[in-house]
Amino acid sequence: MTTPSDPAMRSPGSGPADGPGSAAGQVAAPSGPGATTPTAIHADREAGTLALTWADGHATTFDALTLRWLCPCAYCRGEAGMPGWLDSAPTLTPDQTRLVDLHLVGNYAISPHWADGHKTGYYPFVLLRDRCPCAACSARRDAAVPPVAGAGTAGRPAAGSHEEHR
Q1: Could you tell me the CA-to-CA distances from 100 to 4, 55, 95, 113, 141 in Å, in that order?
Q2: Which of 27, 62, 86, 105 satisfies CB 3.0 to 4.6 Å to 67 for a cystine?
Q3: Fold of 9-130
């Protein structure tokens, strides 16, 4: 695998681009060897996207807004029983959703740095694979979620509750 000179492109692992589960239209639940091991990570700052290719051949692309809403840090998600900032359903500014840098955290996570200075969220690869926004992964999650009283479509928590991030 070659790594472009763009510092936003990282190659934390190696492996084939194709593999089990890479057949068109078939996405297995993210488990097993390679399911949460990225072979390529590319942050396109101009397009506002983060693309990951997994060792099992699956590809995931997040837009910056979705990625910021997934921030798992204590400030955004809360801690010690207290709600986080994102639980207040803020309106995110353009700087809060503009990716300016991306760092690897060991062999298990990435740390996006945002234009507003926020950079404390470590996004584990397991989280990124589990929250893959592609149609096949979304359908798999919807099928696996039991109905919840007062929930929105497909048994998911009601919009605005931010329970989908917990």
Answers
A1: 18, 26, 9, 6, 30
A2: 62
A3: NE0471 N-terminal domain-like (3.30.2020)
